[in-house]
Amino acid sequence: MLPSLWSRTSPVACTSEPPASILPLVLRGVGYRVNGKVLLADISFTLQAGGASFILGPNGAGKSLLLRLCHGLLVPSGGEIRWQGPAAAEAPRHQTMVLQHPVLLSRSVAANVDYALRLRGLPRALRHARVAEALQRVGLLPLARRPARVLSGGEKQRLALARAWALRPQVLFLDEPTASLDPAATRAVEEVIRDIRDQGIKVVMTSHDLAQARRLADEVLFLHHGRLLEQAAAQAFFSEPRSAEGRAFLRGELLW
Questions:
Q1: C-alpha–C-alpha distance, residues 66 and 68, integer Å
Q2: What pLDDT sits at residue 255?
Q3: What is the pLDDT of residue 57?
Q4: CB-based contacts of 214, cutoff 8 Å, min separation 6
Q5: Is 43 exposed, middle or buried (0-12, 13-18, 19+ CB in 10 A)?
Q6: How far is residue 224 from each of residues 43, 127, 177, measured CA to CA in Å?
Q7: R_g of the chain, CA atoms, integer Å
Q8: pLDDT under 50: residue ranges of the chain
Q9: What integer pLDDT is reported at residue 1 of this predicted model?
Q10: CA 151 to the chain's CA centroid
Q11: CA–CA separation, 201 vs 171, rounded Å?
Q12: Cβ-Cβ contacts under 8 Å for 164 (sequence gap 6 or more)
């Protein structure tokens, strides 16, 4: 049974001290091959704390693959990926990822968030408060008891974001979280992402939507054919990309 806490209308204050940072994340000469085919080659960059870094590029550029390597879901074929902050050894506990089609449990909306916190070892009383706050932040608190499987696509994505946020990550990886959503659902998800970023959580996100990147990105990493061609402040990339491929991409031309 869910306690009366689910009817709360104000966020739960968090009084704990923030943990030491796991950032920056540094990639040096990273490559990835499958059956001898090179999918990523000689990728080097550094991600600093704060803001939203968008990984852009045409289909097949390697955006999602690079995101999974950064998160640790895949091991590179070559090169080095290292968290270099003072809490680097604790990086697995301080980063999380939300996929384009998030995996949700056949349980209630609230239970989906609670389960993630239980796996992290949080005591029950703290879990209840954290779940309520997370659902309130994404606008799903009135649906706390509803089965997650009956949510709309946009609501499912907001639930996945609530579950990720509840873990208090320092870094949140997002793989095209609005790719299959209608404009209204996309706007709602973007508002959640913006709120997460504004709380100081580092957002690293792939997107095929240039307008979305213009709205949300602070930094752009532009990939083409598995190579990183640009890393620049978003304003600089959108106003004057350095590479010919980047300029063509912004013009909407097909890149091969």
A1: 5
A2: 72
A3: 96
A4: 234, 238
A5: buried
A6: 11, 43, 21
A7: 19
A8: 1-15
A9: 33
A10: 21
A11: 6
A12: 96, 97, 98, 172
Tokens of 224: 């083409």
Q: Which residue has the tokens 């506990």?
A: 93
Task: Write the secondary structure of the chain as one string of H (helix), E (strand) and C (coil).
Answer: CCCHHHHCCCCCCCCCCCCCCCCCEEEEEEEEEECCEEEEEEEEEEECCCCEEEEECCCCCCHHHHHHHHHCCCCCCEEEEEECCCCHHHHHHHEEEECCCCCCCCCEHHHHHHHHHHHHCCCHHHHHHHHHHHHHHCCCHHHCCCEHHHCCHHHHHHHHHHHHHHCCCCEEEEECCCCCCCHHHHHHHHHHHHHHHHCCCEEEEECCCHHHHHHHCCEEEEEECCEEEEEEEHHHHHHCCCCHHHHHHHCCCCCC
* pTM of the predicted model as reported, rounded to 2 decimal places: 0.91
For β-strands 95-98 and 171-175, DSSP reports them as parallel
Report pLDDT for 12.
Answer: 38
Q: What is the pLDDT of residue 256?
A: 64
Q: Are 162 and 137 in contact (CB under 8 A)?
A: yes
The pair of three-digit structure tokens given for residue 160, joined into one six-digit string? 């996945």
Query: What is the reported pLDDT for 17?
Result: 66
